[in-house]
Specification:
By secondary structure, the chain is an alpha/beta fold. The chain is 22% helix and 29% strand. The chain has helices at 37-41, 54-57, 60-67, 75-82, 151-159, 176-186, 208-213, and strands at 2-5, 11-15, 18-22, 46-48, 71-74, 88-91, 96-99, 102-108, 114-115, 123-124, 129-135, 138-142, 163-167, 191-195, 218-219, 227-229. 46% of the residues are buried.
Length: 230
Amino acid sequence: MKITWLGHSGFRIEIGGQILLIDPWLDGNPSFPADQTEAALAGVTAILLSHGHGDHASNTVALAQRTGAPVFCIHELAEILGAEGVKTIGFGKGGTVTLGDLRVTMVHAVHSSSIDFRGGAPIYAGGEAGFILRAEGHSIYFSGDTDVMMDMELIADRYAPDIGILSAGGHYTMDMEGAAYAAKRFFDFKTVIPCHYGTFPVLEQSPQTLRDALPDVQVLTPAVMETLTL
């Protein structure tokens, strides 16, 4: 399994014979180097969106058309993107889709979701979500944009994730301290990868607080476009 950070909350994950883009905000992302776009998109088989905000979904139409990859997301967002000519598979929280040897389950998050790529007022885009990815003997929890929530106890109990990809930048989501609290309070992660930090001045710039709070967990903080093999 390979995990590549695309900056902000975007990831390229190669798992179970699939190559996923999750929340791939490339164009306009100050953390992502434009000359790495081809490498990020090579061989992509599916795009997953946790919610509709611009720093997660604003590139989706262009990327889906460029790669031919279907987009998996909550039903209402799928309807909006489908109207733009994108192949979408909408599903809901608690639902699971199977992609080859990979199972993707949508789980709850606490945030908000709208989309404004058409211009004008934001359009309601269904609920915010996270994902559980299961393949190759791993269970990965991608939290999406969220605060700490009691639902994490149920997610941990049901899916026993060994890898957590956690929003941790503060201001819009839980911060590093909150992500550390969630990891200790609810989960038994072997590996934690923080995201949604460092992109803008209002966000936390360093993951050191998270690393210090989880001395018994492998906290990995790759550079943008650095690939981790787990």
